[in-house]
Amino acid sequence: MVRREEPRAFVHPRRFIAFGVVIAVVFSALTARLYDLEIVRGDYYHDLSEQNRILRLPVAAERGGITDRRGYVLARNVPGFAVSVIPVDLPRPRETELFQRLGAVLGLPSDAVGDAVRTQRQRNPYEPVRISKTPVPREIAFAITERAELFPGVRVDPESIRLYVNGTLYSPVIGYTGPITEDELGKLRDQGYLGDDDIGRTGIESIYERYLRGTYGWREIERDAAQREIKTLALRQPVVGNTIVLTIDDRLQKLIDAELRKGVEEDRFTQAVGIAMNPQNGEILAMVSIPGYDNNMFARGITTSELAALNADDRHPLVNKAVGDQYPAGSTFKMVTGLSALSEGTATRSTTVNVSAMSFSVSGTTFYDWRAHGTLDFVTGFAHSSDIYFYTLAAGTPFAPNVRGVGPDAIAKYGKMLGFGSPTGIDLPNEASGIMPDPEWKLATQDEPWTIGNTYQEAIGQGFVAVTPLQLLNAYASVANGGTLWQPHLLKQVTSPTGTAIPIPQAKPIRKLDMTQENLRLLRESARRVVTIGHAYMPNARLPIAGKTGTAEFGASSGRDSAGRNKLGFHNWFISFVPQADNSDPTAQIAMVLFTYDSSKSLCDNCFNPAVSMSQRILETYLLDTK
Amino acid sequence: MSVRPMELARPATPLHDRPVPRRWTEIDPILLIITLLLIAYGLVMTYSTTAETRTFTGDPMQFVIRGAIWAAVGLAVMTAVAMFDYAWLGTFAPVLYLVTLGLLAIVLQLGTASLGAQRSVNIAGLTFQFSEVAKILMIVVLAKYFADRRARIGSPLVMLFGLALLAPAVFLVYRQPDLGTSLVFIAIFFGIAFLAGARMWQLVGLVAIAAASFPVIWALLKDYQRARLSAFLDPYSDPQGAGWNIIQSLIAVGSGGATGKGLTAGTQSPLGYLPIAESDFVFAGLAEDLGFAGAIILFALYIVLLFAALRVAFRARDPFGMLIGGGIATMLVFQILVNVGMAISLMPVTGIPLPFISHGGSSLVSICFALGVLQSVSMRREPEGP
User: Fold this and answer.
1) Which of A357, A525, B15, B20 could form a disulfide with B87 if both were Cys (CB 3.0 to 4.6 A apart)?
2) Is residue A96 assigned to a domain?
3) Is residue B4 part of a domain?
């Protein structure tokens, strides 16, 4: 049967040929594709494989520390921990349980934890996503690592927390750091900032970010597909940031703070500022602003309720009132009026005014003094802080028809010379500029002509005059040092991690006062007389302190504010400086302003300006008592 | 001359109508040499792609030794199978068919899940992929089927019944699920039917029907299979998910360049970027380590092997032998195309091993078994005509 046909008829040669052709086509296609991948685009894919394999990771550098002028540490870093989740290591059946547990431990809503993990799972499940928004304390970190079985997929890595020693005391000066924002990151990415970096937000931390931030290093690692590190291929160590030495003296800072804080606790006033500086070079020795806030809250991550509480306080604790807000200067401003009249020659040391009444009227408006002083010359007028004496110097009064007022333009000229109306340029952010008014200014801003009443008010630091405590202090310091208006500054030195000094801008004068030494000396003498015969009386004085009080009315003088504190309606100022030998030499080493806000009226014999006695205690303790 | 004493030959053995004694001289030497070379190449690649694993386990040659043992087993199987007349296989084809289905059913019942599929069975600590053996047995069954129906090959019924034979096996493999291997079964069917002389219009018609029913097939596919197909069309649509393997494989292959990074010097597979680098994606590892040159050498060995197999088929003494040879060649060329194509993104991702190179005993021993049958065919071919 089968034998009948051609023995090998079952072989179909053409089909074999076709089969062979298929094989040839298959291998040609494979070879062609391979040629394209390996020969034509080999370099491209080789680069890709290296990028796969090698990752350059930044290595964060520690931020530099901050100390006072004697090396007392004010800001440093302590170890904290960051908690992250690697989505791929988290079994899905357990994720709800983990989200709740982790949320409870970290104080976050479990939804937020879940969202972060799920988003990361979409993006790259092998890469850890940071869950803790703020550094986690040691106890919580250890609790997590010790019970790793309860926290699948969770990893804990060390990171550093900024710690502020005496946070509340120094927060107005030092400020704080905070997480970088998207906008900032956009600008600063080129300088090596990373998405989870902290950056100085305000105060010294912000102004001197460039010194404090260290130089980040990097690590080139070989990694596997699960992004696990296999080995380090290359490393550049990070360099710790520089240490900033402030001009602040911690001892003086604490003395001032203790006095002012006591006053607030005793409800003698609700807010207070104290600044001390070296008049010879503009170094700020102390800067206290009460109420402050604990900047450690920001370092560890401020909660919404904490921030809400700070914002709800109508004393504005987040504002450093030494530079950030402006107030009427009160009688302290008589120095400006006096120096204007002396410098323009409309008054001399012996210009006398017979203050025979407590008030007088001009164009229907009555102006008062606090008593009928009798005959006053420049020194006694300043010492007793006679308003009518300085009205007379500024604009003339019926009490001294022969004395010509120096006028508002001159007062503005010398006021600006003394630094009023513009920021001092201290190395702190958000400095207010104050207002040094003149007729032109009034016309421009109020659209009204200047009146003689404006001049009277200006003469005693009321009306439109607005100053920052620092401006006032700096103006007095320039008188105390013989005529140099220094730029106040907080930076004393920058030290590199190896201990060498980094060059910093030199302390520089803003200007030399265009005033005679004789007139400045007269002012210093008058300021000393304020203490010896005036109403800044200092019993048992151990130092030849000179100074000037000021009291400014600002509004409601009774009732209570939203927090139940007394509304007393007055600001009290006392600016003091300590001449070395006698009241006439220009070598004072310390000048200080104390400013108490919302305090009791002191414009009478019996009332007291709380700032005077506090100043005496602070200066005597600081300069005379054992250190 | 060519007249044979057919009457004498007739009842010599019940196995087949034309007994031809085995002649060792007719072993196909090219087939044998290429087989040995490919086994050696496979061991080298096992050495290279498992280099990093070795340092972790501390057992330096673990995988290579295991591969060598499997190679030895494979060569023994090949020798043994070659000694027997392949006609026995034809005689027991119905039994073999039941064995095939039985093995595949066992995998479904007892299989060990791995990467979401039950493809292997653990026996005495060893892992067996029965579908590898089933492929060879299916070649035998289909070769026997078409050889016996050579006279009526033009009948659509023969075609349909052949498909009916194939369908249960494809279904069982698909259920594992192992789409790739079920496609190998279908390819084998077409290869054998083609060489058996099936009508072209029938074959083309089947392909056309399959293409037309693609929407139905798509609906039957599992999610991950659809994802793989989508990823094949555009790997970067999901680079961290379904596209990951494809992208990383392309990077591995491309980064090999002309001559490769050197044995064990590849970075993609030891660092885990290349998944299943010793079996499914072994070609990517090979191309990374040995480059274009290494791949071309491999291709050359394959081509020679395939043409040697075709030559054996062409010279077989009977249709059964011819179709076995054709089936084996079909299986090899299809697996090479799919596996290599997958590594270089010409084909979607499926878990088909690369013959000889993928590390795995079942695959190697099954192929050795197939080549043993092929040698058996070769040894019993008609003496060269005068």
Assistant:
1) B15
2) yes
3) no
